[in-house]
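Dig into these lines:

——
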Amino acid sequence: MRVLVVEDIALLREKIVEDLKRAGFTVDSAADGAQGLYIATEYPIDIAIVDLGLPHVSGIDIIRSVRAKGLDYPIVALTVRERWESKVEVLEAGADDYLVKPVHAEELSARLKALLRRKTGWTQAELCCPPIRLNTSEQRVYIDEREIILTAYEYRVLEYLILHAGEVVSKTRLTDSLYEEDTDRDSNVIEVFIRRLRLKLDPDEVIKPIETLRGRGYRFTLERTNP
């Protein structure tokens, strides 16, 4: 999943970016409100973390602009203010959650994952599409009770497909979820990951969990059993 971090304090921004990458997210970042607004409205973002006290363009204005453009990805606001009036203003502007600095890495990661699950219709940390289970907290994958060992990128591709189970997900969309904007991208890398996933998840081609739709993308075909 691709996260945007908009924070003007360099040390804090770098720490958040590092923590999120360690937690398995793809991260874009911006050091001021103007740059953050551009990325927030022009890049294929899945979720954003926006500090309110930004130079050039305020965090509140970024949130309002994102919503005005009809973009509905989740947004978490960061601030040093704890007054309830501030929280109301942020939520009414269109934010989905609110954190007061200092930010703890585990809490931030957990909130982001919960918001992303909710956005795609899941409510629990374990995503069940029998016989496949994916635990988003532990980043582990099981077929029935047998754990399947995946690389970090294989896991991220599978997690994205399961979160959007039943949807057609384009190759471009999958690539955008894996790599920051300035990363060199191999157009065939998604095909490689999909092939590896099929071999690991379904070596005998019995359950056929990932469908290829020529010219359109991929679809995770197994039905979810938990909301």
User: Anything to note?
Assistant: The chain has two domains: 2-119, 126-220.
